[in-house]
Amino acid sequence: MQTPHGRIYNIFEDMTKQPHLMIAGATGSGKSVVVNGIITTLLYRFPTDAQLILIDPKRVELSPYKYLPHTLRYASEPRDMINALEYAMEIVESRYRVMEQMRVRKYPLGDVYVIIDEFADLMNTNRTEVAPLVQRLAQIGRASKVHIILCTQSPISKILCTEIKCCIDSRVGLHTRSAQDSRNILDHKGLEKLPMFGEAIYMTPKGEGQYKIPYVDEAEQNRLINWWYGQIRR
Q1: Residue 2, pLDDT score
Q2: Taking the mean position of all CA atoms in its chain, how far away is CA 44?
Q3: Residues with Cβ < 8 Å from 124, sequence gap 6 or more?
Q4: What is the pLDDT of residues 7-16, one digit of tens each?
């Protein structure tokens, strides 16, 4: 689709197909909008299969999904967040044992999504324990269908080491404050020219394109969440 300004926008792309995903951009650029859209998509498309491990240092972004039947763990306290990552690794290791017994190279059942909001906060809390766990999940989670969705403002090496970043080769780049921040995310400038919110550059191993970010409003989120809560009470 071509706009009057000459830009080309892709209409749709399924971000849940990627092994791991990084969502990065300046404060207020729409990282939470992207995450809410992904979770809403999972609840609609995989209502009985998708499972979530939610790590929420700010205690507000992911808390509405805390009691969904899909949520295996919700963590917002420092020790609980480490435990949630360790639990994700236990799932990976358990699934690899099943794969070995079945003699298959990919786990045959549903996916688990480890969603980390504000990764910098998590690293600042306990880098020594967090970094090895996230790195290992990124390295071996793909075949076991355990995926990382990681949000950060700018993945500088101080926050996101090269070993982790290299394993997360699909990225959603939102508006950044500078060309250097754009390079930190996509390895090239351009994100600083995006509108403050509403648009992103989505990069995968197949290439990249500029997208309009779909917005799931709070009323729709609440309707969907309340419906699932209703199923639990039945």
Answers
A1: 40
A2: 17
A3: none
A4: 555 556 677 7
State the average pLDDT for the chain.
Answer: 89
- Which amino acid does the sequence have at 218? E
In a domain, 34, yes or no: yes
Closest CA to 176 of 166, 190, 157: 190
DSSP 62-111: SGGGTTSTTEEEEE-SHHHHHHHHHHHHHHHHHHHHHHHHHT-SS--S--
Which residues is 119 bridged to in the sheet?
A: none
Contact 56, 74 (CB under 8 A): yes
Please return the burial class of 232, using the count of CB atoms within 10 Å of its CB with bins 0-12, 13-18 and 19+: exposed
In this prediction, residue 3 carries a pLDDT of 38
pLDDT at 17: 78
Radius of gyration of the chain (CA): 18
Number of domains making up the chain? 1
Does residue 207 contact residue 27 with C-beta atoms inside 8 Å?
no
- Please tell me whether residue 215 adopts helix, strand or coil conformation: coil
* C-beta separation of 172 from 178 below 8 A: no
CATH code of the domain in which 92 resides: 3.40.50.300
Q: How distant is the alpha carbon of residue 126 from its chain centre?
A: 20
Rounded Cα gap, residues 55 and 52, in angstroms: 10
Supply the pLDDT for residue 5.
42
- pLDDT of 12 reads 60
User: 106 in a domain, yes or no?
Assistant: yes
**If you ran DSSP here, which 8-state letter would residue 17 be given?**
G
Containing structural domain, residue 114: 16-222
